[in-house]
Amino acid sequence: DIQMTQSPPSLSASVGDRVTITCRASQSISTYLNWYQQKPGKAPKFLIYAASSLQSGVPSRFSGSGSGTDFTLTISSLQPEDFATYYCQQSYSSPFTFGPGTKVDIK
Amino acid sequence: EVQLLESGGGLVQPGGSLRLSCAASGFTFSSYAMSWVRQAPGKGLEWVSAISGSAGSTYSADSVKGRFTISRDNFKNTLYLQMNSLRAEDTAVYYCAKDGAHDYYDSSGYDYWGQGTLVTVSS
Q1: Residues sharing a CB contact under 8 Å with residue B71, sequence separation 6 or more, in sequence order
Q2: Are strands B117-121 and B10-12 parallel, antiparallel or unpaired?
Q3: Of B107, B115, B116, the CB nearest to A96
Q4: CA A102/CA A89 separation, integer angstroms
Q5: If 0-12 CB within 10 Å is exposed, 13-18 middle and 19+ buried, where does residue B56 land?
Q6: CB B79 within 8 A of CB B110
Q7: What ranges make up the beta strands (E) of B1-123?
Q8: What is the sign, positive or negative, of the torsion defined by CA atoms of A78, A81, A83, A88?
Q9: Partners of A38 in the beta sheet?
């Protein structure tokens, strides 16, 4: 199985900050990488697919990049509603594993 | 509007069985692969099982293989997860999730999720 890691596990940031989350795959997954946002007690929300394509309705302050084994999710200007946990997921090889998550909270 | 509504969760003893359902609406159900993803209390997301749009192919994680069975009724627009021989480590919120693709292996990510149903395995 492909192992996914994320860094950092958590971070504290202020409204308006630029935030970058890293996701790494244990082997090359091309650009078969998705990102989700989850708030406490809620279902995950689909943000980005194919490493850099923004899901319809997702604000443009979210962006993704990367290919192969290293990927990033960037929030250009953190908003109050962005405080949540973010998960990456590879859809290159079954089982389609998730990363452990990165929790973004208020500084 | 796409809606996914899970039901069937609850408290069950170790070794017991439970059947989860996910009623779908707002899209052509048979055109998309569907998955079950679970989340243990305070933990991350774990893919459990998937089924192609036509129901011709199913896939399961090693952790549930031989115990859980995924199925779908494309006439009733409903996804199911039959869970047998339940263990304490199966305790989690179970989400049904719609894929952007028809087939599991062409997955483009899960674009819609249900609200989840809690399964607790305890004596």
Answers
A1: B51, B55, B58, B79, B80, B82
A2: parallel
A3: B107
A4: 12
A5: exposed
A6: no
A7: 3-7, 10-12, 18-25, 34-39, 45-51, 58-60, 68-73, 78-83, 92-99, 110-113, 117-121
A8: negative
A9: A85
| 3-state secondary structure at position A81 | helix
What residue of B is the nearest CA neighbor of A9? B44
| A104: its two tokens | 């973004």
Angle at alpha carbon of residue A54, lines to A49 and A56, rounded to 5°? 110
* Residues from A in contact with B at Cβ < 8 Å: 34, 36, 38, 42-46, 49-50, 55, 87, 89, 91, 94-101
Q: For residue A23, which amino acid is it?
A: C
HEC per residue, B91-120: CEEEEEEEECCCCHHHCCCEEEECCCEEEE
Q: Which residue has the tokens 């990049």?
A: A65
Contact B47 A50 (CB under 8 A): no
**Would you say how long chain B is, in residues?**
123
- In DSSP terms, A98 is beta-bridged to A89
| The two structure tokens encoding residue B40 | 């243990």
CB A29 within 8 A of CB A69: yes
The two tokens of residue A74 are 């960037």
The one-digit pLDDT tens for each residue of chain A (107 residues) are 999 999 999 999 999 999 999 999 999 999 999 999 999 999 999 999 999 999 999 999 999 999 999 999 999 999 999 999 999 999 998 899 999 999 999 88
